[in-house]
Predict the structure of Ureidoglycolate hydrolase.
Amino acid sequence: PLEDDHDYDSSSFTVDSLNLQKQIDELSSFSDSPLPSVTRILYSDNDVRARRFIKNLMGLSGLSIREDGVGNIFGRWEGSEPDLPAVSTGSHIDAIPYSGKYDGVVGVLGAIEAINVLKRSGFKPKRSLDVIMFTSEEPTRYGISCLGSRLLAGSVSLATALKQTVDNQNISFLDAAKSAGYAGNEDFSDVFLNDRSYSAFVELHIEQGPILENEGISIGIVTAIAAPASIKIDFGGNGGHAGATLMPQRNDAGLAAAELALAVEKHVLESGSVDTVGTVGILELHPGAINSIPSKSHLEIDTRDIDENRRNNVIEKIHESAVSISKRRGVELLEFKIVNQDPPTLSDESVIKAMESATQVLNLSHKKMISRAYHDSLFMARKAPMGMIFIPCYKGYSHKPEEYASPEDIANGVKVLALTLAKLSIS
Ligand code: GLV
Ligand code: MN
Ligand code: MN
Ligand code: MN
């Protein structure tokens, strides 16, 4: 049936799954770790190769390409009314150490394929359609999550901070960005989107949890994204010889870190809700020798909740524990830095409606759900009505090499994305 009196027929939507899978596999080969794991770090050689790969595909789909100062990549299909705010979709292709092929990638390659689907169906957009590849959704290199979308959303503090930011090899963000061909004018505030850029943003992503697979449902419609936060902590002690320094004389920075890690778990469990989570994903000891008492320790803590106050309460308790542990152990709390403390975000009702009606037209089962992972959508929601489409993934695995989504589930997601974009483009 023709929808909304427009000249396209979603029952004839065809996804080229074979080619899409080939692209997913090829992209996974741009990695700093051996397959099946994927490691693709911001502005690394493999990231630059992957970016070239994406731009090439955008070009083959007839999109006109623009890159901003931090390397967010935009591929535009111009609509018949190009002065209207456009409709945008996209995700990220950076990959945390030893992760999988699908996180983010499905929402970039799948978005380009959604454009191909629409072109093959004869659809002509009214509002322009943008596919966006966001820079550094993952915080791996510079500690900042959703770096590209955070800037697009207008974070003045981030634009300022980036001029001083260095990675753990002391390579500045500016130098790294320049080496990848970006940061031409060093003013990151020129990345900010204006309020009329987009009328809607939709992101396709693997669920990264087990619900859709367990319940045999094809599509998840995200209604809200949980509130993420991250903290960096350094303890300092005197260190010394592991044999000659007797126990009463020690102030072991490593044990302070160990105790704090357990305190994080305790505070999270005491929140009273299963929705509160906390992880010590990084724990480093200096100098890292078996016969040397740690003189420094470094922890990075990730904590999230769908309830912002409850999450903030956990952060406060972690801080209290860090202070009391350092006092009791005679260890210095050198740094307690809240890197980000973001609010949760709701999807927009009008985008939810468009996604829901797309699943109905396409005859796909769907369920409304919360995203416990964060996404660039968290920040794009500040600039446009936002929605997210989830597809099932094997056992809910993500951020590890076993991550997998079937070609069929990906194709369903691409079709729902294509139809949602079409609806939003002509509205
Ligand atoms: C995104 O990768 C997240 O950690 O939620
Ligand atoms: Mn991720
Ligand atoms: Mn992701
Ligand atoms: Mn530190």
Observations:
- The radius of gyration is 23 Å.
- The chain has a mean pLDDT of 97.
- The chain is about 35% helix and 25% strand.
